[in-house]
Amino acid sequence: MGQSAFQPIAATQNIAAISYPPAVVQLAFLDGEILPVSSYADEVFSEDACFALKNLEKVSAEILHEIQERMWQAACERLEASLSQFATLQDLCDSEALMNRKFFGQRAPTGPANVMNAVRMKEVQIVRASNADGESRLMVGVFGECAWDTEFGVAILFDADGTLIAAGGA
Fold it and tell me: Where does the DUF6985 domain start and stop, copy by copy (predicted)?
């Protein structure tokens, strides 16, 4: 019997053995977090999308460290843009919590090592984008909320090969 589209599929399982990406995926690099998978147009049914999700297995500890560094940079940039209103990142996070009713009591991150404590990833999206030359490429985005910018949140973007493209503010 085949894997149901509505059961969690670990990134270490053979995702390519099914003919469509799963409805949810478990991401080892995010402490095994299980997130829903969505797509625009018919990309959800492509074999390329299955392989792109499987390639998230390649996210190593080194890549996770890079993601943490970029997320911390995004938090610092958001604070810098708000220095006229907030003296500290904690002040910014507290204000965001009050305004948007999210992340109440969240301690602001103090560096890359704990920045992901102030992040809640919400979904994985499979997207196809075109560059200026009209060439199309498949990408996987992991999107979420963060304590320092509850309106726009954060994103981690990988190419179909599992290479980190970007991480930080969405």
Answer: 38-168
Residue where the block lists tokens 């994985």: 124
How many Cβ atoms from other residues are within 10 Å of residue 32's Cβ?
11
In terms of Cβ atoms closer than 10 Å to its own Cβ (0-12, 13-18, 19+), residue 149 is: buried
Contact criterion met (CB below 8 Å) for 88 and 96: no
Beta bridge partner(s), residue 86: none
pLDDT in tens, 23-66: 888 898 999 999 988 876 655 557 888 888 889 888 899 999 99
CB distance 167 to 67 below 8 Å: yes
- C-alpha dihedral over 87, 93, 95, 96, to 10 degrees? 140
Provide the CA 75 distance to its chain's centre, in angstroms. Answer: 15
Task: Report the candidate in 106, 100, 9 with the shortest Cα–Cα distance to residue 49.
Answer: 9
CB 141 within 8 A of CB 125: yes
